[in-house]
Structures are given as C-alpha cells and as structure tokens.
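Hi U.,

Before I forget, here's the chain from the pilot set. I'm dumping it here mostly so it's searchable later in email.
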Amino acid sequence: MPAGKVAVGVGLLAVVALAAAGLVALDAALLAAEKADRNAPGDVRVTVLLPDGRPLFNATVPSENGTALSVLLSAAAAGGFEVVVDNQSLGAYVRAIAGHEASGAEGWKYYVQHAGVWEGGDRTSADYPVGRGDWVLWRWGGLEDEGPWTAPPTG
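Structure:
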C-alpha cells in the first residue's frame, strides 16, 4: 500500500478516536449535569397510592441530595404512616407501606416525573436521585404494569 494511503488511513483513525473520546467526555459531562440537576435542593412532590388507588399521601417534601426512597421516608414521617425497607443483595427494597406488604409478583413500585417526563424506577429507590420540581409516585403494582397512571390522582 502506498505511504500516502497509510497516512490518510491512520489520520482518519485518529480523527475517529478523538471524536469518540469527545463523545465519551460529552456523555460523562451530560450525566454529571443531569445528576446535579436531579439532586438540586428543593421541594419534591410525593404521591403514595394505596392498592385500591386511593391516595395515602400527596404533598411536597423538602429534599437535598434526595432519592426516591429518602423522599418516601420523609413523606411517611410527615403523613404518619410506616414504611418497611429490607436491605437485600441488590439494594434497598420497599417491602411494605402503611401495612400493605409485597407478596409474590405484586408490591410497591415507584415512578419519577422529571422535567415533565415519567420514568419507571430502573434501579433501587435508594439509588434513584430526585431534586427540586420532581414528582415521585409510589403505587402498588405487578409485573404487567406499564406506567404510573392515565390521570394523576387528586386530593
């Protein structure tokens, strides 16, 4: 292969490698900014729906470096209900809220609305950051449940 083609090939590889490194750095910066945004101190709305759909709690609680679990515990303190958390190998597991204990495939699930978009809990609630303006919904559900609800609760 002629030397000129090798140099162009190596140069192209260098450009691709630099671009990839830049994308990785950009991705890391975006993730850091998102985490900082999600952990912004301020009020977080927390809604806890009982298995029959009635709201047990629906108000804001203060949060600083909060998680979906920490704001649930703050809601429990403010609302006077009990939360039972088990520490398991995969992390914290909310076993019961207000005496309603998980059983089989049914139990407590959480969803977070951040910047107007609902997200299902994709990790243990103790590791899911929340911050100013977020809305955390805890509801009873099973494996087949897809999302938080079709209409927000009232009250």
